[in-house]
Automatic annotation (TrEMBL):
InterPro entries: AAA+_ATPase, KH_dom, KH_dom_type_1, KH_sf_prok-type, Nucleic_acid_metab_PIN/TRAM, P-loop_NTPase, PIN-like_dom_sf, PIN_dom. In the N-terminal section; belongs to the PINc/VapC protein family. Gene3D superfamilies: 5'-nuclease, P-loop containing nucleotide triphosphate hydrolases. Pfam families: KH_1, PIN, T2SSE. Residues 483-589 form the K Homology domain. This is PINc/VapC family ATPase. PROSITE patterns: KH_TYPE_1. It comes from Halovenus rubra. Keywords: RNA-binding. Residues 1-115 form the PIN domain.
């Protein structure tokens, strides 16, 4: 009797089981090299199935040594292209060919493999997969009612995050350090549960990382070389809420039911954003809306009526295209982080779908600022008209977002009227921020609050005035605001005539462009002494030149016409940011999303003067 086992029965250990039962006693067990190669590949990737299969082969060799069976390794290993196409049946085809050549019985636990073999006239022994009942996973022993996450790593004591939402503590939860055997056992149990239980599925399976969803648990198994050691992290929600559990519940219900909205749920990690998003999803579903989710990985705890989607073909944009065919009333997007995520969110919202996005942000206003540069400024209120900020599991702030055409707060001239995004407190109706363009720069300005130093409008105005004056002055320049629409500019004595221009024409042009009255005086006339102030003298000594960066969808661009090929330092006020070489086009481009760009954009947002200094 000759049998050819495929990968499925080897992994399950069913061949050695039949040998021990006496059914395969005296048989010749023909092991295809394609099976060995597939198991080796899985083991190299750190997958437990590979290790289990290799252990089964060792057991079979032991039976061969004592004469119970005869083991032969035959055939060829699968080519790399065949391994890539394993899901298409290429390796299974190699195994069937060996069974056909030897006129042997194919032994499998794969129902598709069995049906194909029967269709080709092979003798097949189909063994039902070894199905275990998975009510719980072994890792669940580390969880109690207050445990949100468990962190296991080889050589380290088990750690966990325990406490209430917003008040979690990362602490040791067991005294014994874990061995590699312990972690392999937990990982095998997790992967078996995901494959076998209807309550589990494998969300991601890549070399070095497997992500599993089992009931309420999202579990990540990381392996070398992706991680420096075998590590398992399991996370679960510790509370499930309804919209009634939150402040502003009645008003939020009315707002969500009035029409399809664009909502950004923001907050710090662990603040309870996803828990609130789940509550919103359940409320909308109970209110008669068709609700779907977009998640990677899928871990929102919602009812079976709400279908949870993940990436299609590795891209959320393709998921969005599919959902637009489904036409949900509302889609919950968890989490919106990268530029592609914001673009997908905006596209679906502009297509008329109600969107609820979960965004990491430490302030409510920061969630809206994530859209700047990724979405056309005038479209932001159409994309997100509501911002909910979650702190310690509670609704801390709600913003209403609208557009008005007006003169921005702090500016006076009527001809400075422009579209302004108004961010108002949902409860009081009081405007807290305005977002608009000022001399090609998008600015976010607090409204109504007291600031210890210059207001944001003042800082922006000073920066723009200084830039205009520096374009014609050769020496040092200082700007002093005297009121909402007047300023004094102090320049070197040699620059007075150049700044004022013939008949005052040049300074009049600058005043008209900026909408502010400018009084030009010499630095020697300053009442606090001769020459530049101490605060600015350091900047003058560096030979710094103020510039106005432009923020595009992909880059932060610093214009430096006439300085192509020069190496310069870029500074915010007097603080060094980075060194760069000016391109042949006379500019420096910094890719958005990089650490340098984030520092530069932060400096711009805070109204700091950006200068370049020869390196």
């Amino acid at each position: 009797m000759e049998i050819v086992p495929d990968t499925s029965v080897v992994i399950d250990g069913r061949v050695s089981e039949r040998v021990e039962d006496g059914e395969f006693t005296g048989a010749t067990v023909i092991i295809p090299e394609a099976v060995v190669g597939e198991l080796e590949s899985q083991a190299n990737d750190g997958r437990e199935t590979g290790w289990e299969g290799l252990e089964e082969l060792q057991r079979l060799v032991g039976f061969d040594d004592d004469g119970t069976i005869t083991v032969e390794y035959v055939g060829r290993r699968a080519a790399q292209s065949e391994k890539r196409d394993a899901d298409e049946g290429d390796i299974d085809a190699l195994i069937r060919d060996i069974a056909a050549d030897r006129d042997a019985t194919l032994v499998t636990s794969d129902d598709v493999q069995a049906e194909v073999a029967r269709a080709k006239g092979f003798e097949v022994e189909y063994i039902e997969p070894d199905v275990r009942e998975f009510e719980t996973l072994a890792i669940e022993e580390f969880f109690d009612d207050e445990t949100m996450s468990v962190h296991l790593k080889v050589g380290v004591k088990p750690m966990g995050k325990r406490g209430a939402i917003g008040d979690m503590a990362y602490q040791t939860i067991d005294d014994g350090a874990l061995t590699e055997a312990d972690l392999h056992e937990y990982a095998a149990d997790i992967e078996d549960g995901a494959r076998i239980s209807p309550d589990g599925f494998i969300e991601l399976d890549e070399p070095g990382m497997t992500i599993v969803q089992f009931k309420d648990y999202r579990i990540a198994v990381a392996r070398p070389p992706f991680s420096d050691g075998l590590e398992i992290t399991a996370v679960r929600p510790i509370v499930k809420t309804t919209l009634d559990d939150y402040e502003y519940a009645d008003d939020l219900r009315e707002r969500l039911l009035e029409k399809q909205r664009g909502v950004l749920i923001s907050g710090s990690p662990g603040a309870g954003k996803s828990t609130f998003a789940q509550a919103v999803a359940e409320f909308l579903n109970d209110s008669g809306f068709a609700v779907k989710t977009m998640e990677k990985p899928r871990d929102l705890q919602v009812g079976p009526e709400i279908t949870q989607y993940t990436e299609l073909g590795g891209q959320m944009s393709q998921t969005a295209d599919s959902l637009l065919m489904v036409r949900p009333d509302y889609t919950i997007y968890d989490e919106v982080r990268k530029t592609d995520d914001f673009e997908v969110f905006a596209d679906m919202r502009l297509a008329g779908v109600g969107m609820v996005g979960v965004v990491h942000a430490t302030r409510a206003i920061d969630a809206l600022q994530r859209l700047i540069g990724r979405v056309e400024l005038g479209l932001i209120p159409q994309v997100a008209d509501t911002v909910v900020y979650i702190e310690a599991g509670s609704v801390s702030k709600v913003y209403d977002v609208q557009t008005e055409v007006k003169v921005p707060e702090g500016l006076m001239e009527e001809d400075l009227a422009r579209p302004v995004i108004m961010i108002r407190d949902f409860e009081t109706g009081q405007t807290e921020y305005e977002i608009y363009t000022f001399n090609r720069q998008v600015v976010t300005v607090p409204v109504g609050g007291e600031e210890s130093d210059d207001s944001s409008v003042d800082r922006i105005a000073k920066q723009e005035i200084e830039r205009e004056i520096r374009s014609v002055a050769r020496g040092h320049v200082e700007v002093e605001l005297r009121g909402p629409n007047t300023t004094v500019v102090w320049v070197e004595d040699d620059d007075i005539s150049a700044v004022i221009g013939k008949g005052g024409g040049r300074i009049s042009d600058i005043e008209n462009r900026l909408g502010i009255d400018i009084d030009v005086r010499t630095l020697e006339d300053r009442p606090d002494g001769d020459g530049p102030s101490d605060e600015k003298s350091g900047q003058q000594n560096t030979g710094g030149m103020a510039v106005t960066p432009e923020v595009t969808s992909r880059h932060v661009v610093i214009p430096l016409e006439g300085h192509a090929g020069e190496t310069v330092e870029v500074r915010a006020d007097s603080e060094y940011l980075f060194t760069a070489t000016v391109s042949r086009g006379g500019e420096i481009q910094v890719s958005r999303g990089s650490a340098i760009a984030e520092e530069l954009e932060k400096a711009i947002d805070f109204g700091r003067t950006i200068t370049v200094v020869p390196s």
